[in-house]
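so my prof wants the structure for this chain in the tokens format not the other one, which i didnt know existed until like an hour ago. anyway here's the sequence
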Amino acid sequence: MITGDHAAIAKETCRQLGMGDNILLPDGLPTFDPTAEIPPTLGDDYGELIESTDGFAQVFPEHKFLIVEALRQKGYSCGMTGDGVNDAPALKKADVGIAVQGATDAARAAADLILTAPGLSVIVDAIILSRSIFQRMKNYVIYRVACTIQLLSFFFLAVLFVHPRKYNADFDESYFNLPVMALVLITILNDGTIISIAYDHVVPSPRPEKWNLKVLFSVATWLGFVAVASSMLLLHWALDSHNPNGFLQGTLGMDPLPYKQVMTLVYLKISLSDFMTVFTARTQGLFYTRAPGKLLFGAACVATGASTLLSAAWPFGETLESLSAGHVLFVWVYCVAWFLIQDLAKVAIYQVLFTFDVSGIRTEDEKCQARAQTTSPEARLTRLESEVSDIQKFMAMAKASDYKAIELASNTGM
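here's what i got, hopefully its the right format
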């Protein structure tokens, strides 16, 4: 606590909040102009003094600035709350400056975060909301990159290495491609699914998170290439459907596909696998470990349903031909099977990343759990009790920060 109020008020408030009552006066702190050059030795000169106390009372604005800067020079990440003009320099200097409800314009302008409700407990809500948004952004990145890899890599490989006429001389094309209309439909329906990710059900992380692009792109690339492999395999089977010994005709007994139906089959497969990938990308475990949001699930159902209907009754000219119910059902079964394979592959890649702690993917909690397995039960119990105590203190401070304690202390101390 850093306050300009009397020391008696500060001690009583800290006592009620459970913060300790070791409140010092600013006698041991220097004063200087915050606009002048900041001494680089503040952390060395005053860091231990600031760390050893529970707060300061009867301070001037420059003292607040000095305390924040000294802690930052000691290597701490500092958060600062305030409401007055005298708090503005410290709010600006802190890593996270928080202006409480009713703060002056100067404090609001200097702050990084402005609270619109009384007390500090709303910070907890803001943290939970921001971490939920962060989770959705990670899911979006993985899904978007995986879908992009599937589309670009598949068409790149298909154009270069797949020659329909080598499978059947009656096929018109010398290389495989899809009509522009099919690609536009895939993109439009995919965009609807992407938008719904913003409303997905997620579980916020209990610890602060950071961007780990190496991990995100590793997982997305893995998912994308699994989808590419499944698409290339189905394309081979479809083009080889005229072969009596091929998989579709020889093993499954399905009718041969003309080239336009081959393109429709591939269109349906890419569409379905794209929309199913979103359920794989949103969890680190198996896809069913966390239920999706209603809007996301509804958007995916609409997209898959629309793609299925379009492939069964293609309405846009003669570039593609409608598929039979049997072929549509086969594509669905094929996509679901590869969706499960893709999900297992995702779990496997995460397991590898966690095992070798690739790019620091393991959180401090997970590292502590790993260390706890090699420590005694007594040591683990002591650590757990300490963590519970810290959490209880934080929640008590948040709930009591609606300034009732300050008002009570003012009435009793003045």
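also thought this was worth mentioning. The radius of gyration is 31 Å.
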